[in-house]
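Sample pair:
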Amino acid sequence: MTQEEYLQLKKEYKIRLVLVIVLFVLFSILSIVLIVNSNRFIPLGATAMATVVPFNHFLLVPLWEAKKAIEAEHPEWKGLSTSGAKVASSETSKRNLAAVGSVIALFFSFALLYRPAKVYQKVPTANEIKNLPNIENKNIPKIEKKSEEAGSSYTTSSESDSSSSTEEVPKTEASNTETRKYNFHVYGIDDDELDRVIDKSLKDIRENHAKKQATEDVEEKNE
């Protein structure tokens, strides 16, 4: 082998070595992104084994072995510069095709596996909704006044309570279709369902308050 051929081989070896390092760095970055987002990363590793590893084994290692053998035979060539050497077009096309194919395969595998991490919002329980702070009367919609009247009539007779509740159901549904009564939005729960839960909680609170008030009135009369 002539000195010029050695310099061409040495230059091509350096280029392929840089490409192998870039491919391994790219594979590491994509794997970290998948792991951080709790995605599967083993298929990406399999893709790297089918692209990056063969690139290193079949395109880089043979040049390294040939370069090492020539330097053992001609130690004085080891320090020569490769700045003026021109690599054969066949070797260049082979190297570029393999590098581009490896990059496309890695990104394609990453696109199939990547799913952004979901941020789940805590869904309030029924007890947490019941423990909401008291709402002032001036902020309560008009329809709530009818619910309050139904709660107060509960202490007098169960029949009037049932009749008032049957009248409130269609009115409540009609108002829900027109506009939202509350500005609460909970991820994973339908707005209408959330309104019904809040209405039921407020109604229970008022009924308990009415019962307590009636008990206090009876105790005062007895005294």
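Confidence is low (pLDDT under 50) at residues 159-177.
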